[in-house]
Fold this sequence. Notes:
Layout: H1 4-14, E1 18-22, E2 28-33, H2 34-38, H3 63-73, E3 77-81, E4 87-92, H4 93-103, E5 112-118, H5 124-133, E6 138-146, E7 150-157, H6 163-171, E8 175-180, H7 184-202
Antiparallel strand pairs: 1-2, 3-4, 5-7, 5-8, 6-7
Helix pairs in contact: 3-4
Amino acid sequence: METVKKALRTMDGYKYEHLPVVSEGMQYVGVVSEDLLRNALNANALVESLTLEKPSAVVDFDVYGVLRLMSQHHYSILPVADADGKYLGCITRESLIEQLADLTAAHVPGGVIELETESRNFSPAVIANVAEYNSMKILSMLSQPLGTHGVRAVLKLNGHETTSVIQGLERNGYRVRNVRGGDSKYNDMLEERYDALVRYMKV
Length: 203
């Protein structure tokens, strides 16, 4: 088991903010933070003697559970252990970001549409049907509540010709707020709408 002094050297060398704490029998003990180490009164004390946090990190955790734990507690790493508590490794913040990039098709070329609608109107099936009707596919969809009655969603499409998809979504009651990587037709239309609004407000 490492001392506080040695653990701090490891953190400084690898630029870590947290370290997993493991017993000599490779049993998962907990997580130690840099702040806890630096505030320790005895630099020669064993890390295991400190009051450690012990987030759950069983091997079958899904990506949502990992993201929730790391986000809630601001962990830069999350240890992974089996059902018997044997330490298997750790998930780093960087590896989690890469996993999320894969899940959301962030590396795949295509248009991104940000939209809003009323909660009662939000339907992933309808959105997918609109995309498929216009010969497009949704590679990923993220959504979040807006207050108590609204929903915001971000769609990643498998192509850049987004104008027909956007028009179909608007016909189904969705308000398009932003478009990234889409074709220029809709961006031009947005600019025209903005210019018209500015002219109207100047009257």
